[in-house]
Amino acid sequence: MPEENDTAVVSQRLSSCSSSTEILSFLSTVRGPWGFIYYQKAGDCLWFGRDFLGRRSLLWKFDAEVKALTLTSVGAHCAGPAASAWQEVPAAGVYRIDLKAVSDAGCVTFEVYPWAHGENGPSYSCTQAILESVPSGCTAVINRSGLALTSPVCPLNTSIPESFNQEEMHPNAHPCDLEQLPAGRERGEAVKRLIGVLSEAVRRRVQALPSQGNSDPSDDNARIAILFSGGIDSMILATLAERHIPAHQPIDLLNVAFQLQEPRKQKESAKKKHKEKPTEWRTGGTESLTSSPFDVPDRITGRAGLKELQQLNPERRWNFVEINVTKEELQETRRERISHLVHPLDTVLDDSIGCAVWFAARGAGLIAGDGDQEPFTSSAKVVLTGIGADEQLAGYSRHRVRFKTSGHQGLVQELAMELARIPSRNLGRDDRVIGDHGKEARFPYLDEDVVSYLNSLPAWEKADLSLPRGVGEKLLLRLAARQLGLGQSAVLPKRAMQFGSRIAKMEDHRERASDRCTRLLTE
């Protein structure tokens, strides 16, 4: 319903429900990201919750002194005893509070309606996640009626052929180039279907846009932006988005880079000898020296990806926005804004990705003009992000480690764990961070139909970790990229955003991703 306000539509439907069963039945049919708080006047009840994958932020806290429960999408971080009061509402079901009972009893009890896969009922881990994470001073009980929401995605296919159990494949036993890899009829059909379902997911997200009122139809500002590194996930999103966006509209490719640290001081004589030359910066790994402190790995692959897109679609205007962040700007903005948006998450990884996504989504940088670069700020209100591809298609190095130690059985278990924890990992954080700019994060790889299709496939059709890096992980997606006409980007190995943008190298190099980040603490 592109011409209608989705909040108004959902509110009207909820208002027409006369029982808990009807409310749950309706919420089970809603697709896409949602987080809601709804007062049901008829029963004097408060309902709230998040979608199955937790794509929208919702926080809660309970103040024991005044006996008040607060629900919000963003909660500012503060120093002192209340610093850790905010928690993310688990995306494990919806919650109902009988306000009259609360008033009579003087305590807050949540009645929980968990997600369930068809007739299987809610999982034990799902139920435990809810019961263990309620705010201090509150209690939670699973509803006595046994009612539950129906999951919008099908269960994960955990089957493993006996041949794989008997003889695991070994690394480097296969061709290391996608062109040499025979897709086979079965996998070829899977590639075709993946492109179809993912293309439809992108179409929904680039065509259902906020109304611009009486805007000029000839306005050539981009309405869609993509968090863009030039890696396979963002390249496929850009390629598919191009299919569904009017030809006259540009697409903004948001590429963020954090200033590289100056190399160690050279000897005085060497400085004098080369004083006329520009400073050289190391990007790390095997990348070459560069004359710009912002030529980080993601900037280099981003430019290469831009060239691929321009060759595939030369008529499209691609705004490659180079977003350059200095250490001083990072520290100031983190202190004043980003720390509050990332909260209540508090790890080094949350800090790195939260900051990188905030600056990228702001969209303020430089684009190529007539000769020189010129300042540019993206006006797009919808930002596509590639979250979800690695989790579902075995894109992380930990998947390769698990496969090496435990074979396909271990890989299937790892993918099941990945899927189960997607709602509690980073989607709420990214929703808060991107939403701070008045923009909306959209996640095509986490479209319910995409997740269901990938869940229906056995693990060995989605990835073959006996193949080398850049081929075996996310194999199905790489084959799809080749079919879409992409080149070198189809075989780029995974590089995490915090490393590709070089934010992880900007401050304390000795930290681990899971460490608590002291930089997120406000004074």
TrEMBL record:
KW Ribonucleoprotein (keyword) present: no
Biological process, per Gene Ontology: asparagine biosynthetic process
Gene3D superfamilies linked: Glutamine Phosphoribosylpyrophosphate, subunit 1, domain 1, HUPs
Region of interest (Disordered), ranges: 263-296
UniProt cross-references to SUPFAM superfamilies, sorted A to Z: Adenine nucleotide alpha hydrolases-like, N-terminal nucleophile aminohydrolases (Ntn hydrolases)
UniProt-listed InterPro entries: Asn_synthase, Asn_synthetase_domain, Ntn_hydrolases_N, Rossmann-like_a/b/a_fold
Any one Gene Ontology molecular-function term assigned to this protein's record: asparagine synthase (glutamine-hydrolyzing) activity
Pfam families: Asn_synthase
The Asparagine synthetase domain, residue ranges: 406-515
Protein keywords: Amino-acid biosynthesis, Asparagine biosynthesis, Glutamine amidotransferase
CDD domains, A to Z: Asn_synthase_B_C
PANTHER family: ASPARAGINE SYNTHETASE DOMAIN-CONTAINING PROTEIN 1 (PTHR45937)
Protein name: Asparagine synthetase domain-containing protein 1
